[in-house]
Amino acid sequence: MELLEKAIQERGTIIGDTIVKVDSFLNHELDTSLLYEIGKEFQQQFRHKRVTKIVTIEAGGIAPALMAGLAFNVPVVYAKKQKSLTMKGDVYCESVYSFTKQVYSDVTISKDRLSSEDHVLIVDDFLANGEAAAGLISILKQAGAEVAGIGIVIEKSFQNGRKRLEELGMEVVSLARIARIGEARIEFLKS
Amino acid sequence: MELLEKAIQERGTIIGDTIVKVDSFLNHELDTSLLYEIGKEFQQQFRHKRVTKIVTIEAGGIAPALMAGLAFNVPVVYAKKQKSLTMKGDVYCESVYSFTKQVYSDVTISKDRLSSEDHVLIVDDFLANGEAAAGLISILKQAGAEVAGIGIVIEKSFQNGRKRLEELGMEVVSLARIARIGEARIEFLKS
């Protein structure tokens, strides 16, 4: 998605050779027009699939997921993330490791919010190691829901997330695929 | 806003006499059509004001703020919330007390994301004691930005948040104002 690659290139901040911060339009400030286009693009890319619900994780995933929900005209559910707790209540839960923060979190969705009738498109802002997406897939399986596919805004294609999700049989569509983060320039894969 | 009051009445869960859970359309699952209407309503209500940016707090505020941003065609900035930390970096910061969780959090916005040129509409999902909104006002003042007003999805009018914000000179618009939470029914104020 050219508009998105341009935003990453021009408005992202490169930190070392593995991180590009996109606080200026995706992770802290939200570029509403760009996000609207991102939502429409997810709908285009997955129009061959039956989608009854979008699922994501707070907080970074909420904005792109909501715009996808708007384009598909379906509800969005965002999983909650918290330091691992013992009390679980009436939720589906999966433990997810954050490589950035080096901490395990519990990712939870209330049982009320999912059903075995759901056909779910998972949407997230980033795909790196695939930990978060794999956690959501596990939760959706617990609920007996169908996973229609995985829509990612920015994929770090030099990490193993896509491979991991494809090995789970998932269709992964990433709107921007970063091949390499150079000192002053980001190289993209053709998506 | 009638559509919203209807959703609260029919799809909210009453817990005791002070809490109504709206996980079914606003705080966990997001009703995208309703949120789209909420965004448009904020734009209508504040169309007399100059608004260059929407500011909110993660995670509950992101969805209504994004829809307001879409209606106004302006960017959204969501403040980050974390347990009080010593390391602050290059951010505006305010300590905010959560009465529900009984814990202080640091609410932060990167200095890069605000300027003294900004005319900001604050948007949040709930107004109870006004702690979060007052924290955001303090951050916006640190940045020298103008506060155009405060748009709230659900106000608990039996708590003192509105009074507190009005005493700070703020225009507060709440799309639903709860006067009283009864055992089986919620009473609204005319807004």
Question: What are the SSEs and their pairings?
Answer:
The structure is a homodimer of 191-residue chains.
Chain A: H1 2-11, E1 13-15, E2 19-21, E3 29-30, H2 32-45, E4 53-57, H3 62-72, E5 76-83, E6 91-98, E7 103-110, E8 119-127, H4 131-142, E9 146-156, H5 161-167, E10 172-181, E11 186-189
Parallel strand pairs in A: 4-5, 4-8, 8-9, 9-10
Antiparallel strand pairs in A: 1-2, 5-7, 6-7, 10-11
Helix pairs in contact in A: 2-3
Structure description:
Chains A, B: Its EC number is 2.4.2.22. Chains A, B: Its main location: cytoplasm. Chains A, B: This is Xanthine phosphoribosyltransferase. The structure is a homodimer of 191-residue chains. Chain A is of the alpha/beta class. The first copy, chain A, has a single domain, classed as Rossmann fold (3-Layer(aba) Sandwich). The first copy, chain A, contains 5 helices and 11 strands, in the order H-E-E-E-H-E-H-E-E-E-E-H-E-H-E-E. Chain A has helices at residues 2-11, 32-45, 62-72, 131-142, 161-167; strands spanning 13-15, 19-21, 29-30, 53-57, 76-83, 91-98, 103-110, 119-127, 146-156, 172-181, 186-189. Chain A has an 8-stranded mixed sheet with strand order 6-7-5-4-8-9-10-11, with helices on both faces. A two-stranded antiparallel ribbon of chain A has the order 1-2. In chain A, helix 2 packs across helix 3. The radius of gyration of chain A is 16 Å and the shape is globular. Chain A starts with a helix and ends with a strand. The model of chain A has no long low-confidence stretch (mean pLDDT 95). The A-B interface holds A 23-25, 28-33, 35-36, 58-59, 62-63, 66-67, 69-70, 73-78, 80, 109-110, 112-113 and B 23-25, 28-33, 35-36, 58-59, 62-63, 66-67, 69-70, 73-78, 80, 109-110, 112-113. Strand 3 of chain A pairs antiparallel with strand 5 of chain B.
